[in-house]
Amino acid sequence: MNMNMVCLQFINLFTMSRLFFLSLLFLMVSCLDFGDDIELDGAEITGKEMNYVSKLTGVVFPDGTEPIGYYFLGSGIDRSLALKVAIPEAEKRSFYEKRYF
What is the pTM of this model? Predict the structure, then answer.
C-alpha cells in the first residue's frame, strides 16, 4: 500500500464520520420542541402578557401603564422577550427609583 492510498482511506473515513455526525445532529435538532414567535401591538397585548413579563423579570408595572409592543421569540433554543410600555408621567419617578436590575 502506498502513501496515496493511506491518505485516500483517511479522507474517506473522515468524510464518512462527518456525514454521520451531521445526520445525527440533524435528527436530534429536528426532535426538539420549539415554541412560537409572538408579536403583538398595543390593544392586542392583554394582562396575560404583562403578568408573564412581571413574573419572569420581577418588574411590577404601576397602575395605568399602557403596553405598546410585545415580542416573544420562542422558536429558538434560547428564548427572548421584549416589552415596550408607556408609564404614566406621575408614576415614572417612583418606578425609576426602584432597583430591579
Answer: 0.59
